[in-house]
Specification:
mainly beta, 6-stranded antiparallel β-sheet, 10 strands, globular, IPExxxVDY family protein, IPExxxVDY_fam
């Protein structure tokens, strides 16, 4: 009897493009600027991306362009959360607030946002998008990221 082996990794294919954005704007302002300059219609999703039992959450905006079979996502890479820090000095315990920073993609800690472009027929021009992003004065810099090089690429599947 022949033994058949099914490799699940063969079915996973990176069919999306990823653009990193360095920008100090709030997420809704950046989404507005992208809508204006790229001709998008990004809208905030009703639920954020939550990881590690609500340890961190990341805002996500989405637009599904059904005419061109393209889904655009703007994802925050930074989550800042204020937590209580308990430590004791001598006889007394003090309660102090500590600001902790979490990243969706830890390999790119300095990136503020990612644009994920899922296109089925590969008709999105990345160079044109990057040129338009560079013309937005509030964006410091933007560049493409190869999804296959990211160790935590599972965080970008939603």
């Amino acid at each position: 009897m022949a033994l058949h082996k099914l490799l699940v990794d063969d079915f996973y294919d990176d069919t999306y493009k990823l653009i990193a954005i360095h920008c100090r704007l709030e997420d809704y302002r950046l989404a507005y600027l992208l809508n204006q300059n790229l001709g998008l219609n990004l809208e905030r999703k009703s639920e954020d991306l939550d990881f590690e039992y609500l340890k961190s959450s990341y805002s996500i905006f989405e637009w599904n362009n059904e005419a061109q079979y393209v889904t655009w996502n703007l994802i925050s890479n930074v989550c800042k959360k204020e937590e209580d820090s308990l430590y004791s000095t001598g006889l007394f315990q003090t309660n102090e607030k500590v600001l902790k920073t979490f990243n969706l993609v830890p390999e790119y800690k300095k990136v503020d946002y990612f644009i994920k472009i899922s296109d089925e027929i590969q008709n999105v021009n990345e160079k044109l998008i990057l040129n338009k992003l560079q013309n937005i004065p509030q964006i410091i810099t933007s560049y493409t990221v190869e999804p296959s090089q990211i160790k935590s690429k599972d965080h970008l599947i939603f």
